[in-house]
Amino acid sequence: MMRKASFKLSWCCKGDQSDQHKHDIVSFEKGNITTASRSSKQISLKWESPPQTVLILTKPNSTSVRVLCAEMVRWLKEQKNLNIYVEPRVKGELLAESCFFKFVETWQDDLEISNLHTEVDLVVTLGGDGTVLWNRCYAFTMLSALF
């Protein structure tokens, strides 16, 4: 089993270029992200090790999203050598376009979905606000950064 990438969330004073006033604000105990204190300051995410596996969730029935997804999957594999998961529907669309995408992974049932959090480091949603909200069930079952 591959080890998941780790990341750190922190906040610092606006305009402060040094790490002098930077504070870590989260802990990851028992799979939950919790903050040490509330803050209205900007929060930054820094990967401590590079992500290895990404889950891409897409807006259904959108030609522009389908094209963007294919381009993104190709780039993530060729340039970053990432492992890529997509929804079963998306894998079918990618394979219909080209056999190049045979490396893309997906799931078959709810048990496999519930175990994705053990492999996925990053969730990318392609679409609008509605797509993010619709796909929240995948992200909420995983401890992954969602962009």
UniProtKB/TrEMBL annotation:
Which GO-annotated molecular functions does the record name? Answer: NAD+ kinase activity
Pfam families, alphabetized: NAD_kinase
Q: Which residues form the signal peptide?
A: none
Please give the InterPro entries that the UniProt record associates with this protein. Answer: ATP-NAD_kinase_N, NAD/diacylglycerol_kinase_sf, NADK
Q: Name one GO biological process term.
A: NADP+ biosynthetic process
Protein family membership: Belongs to the NAD kinase family.
Protein name, UniProt field: NAD(+) kinase
**Organism source for this protein?**
Punica granatum
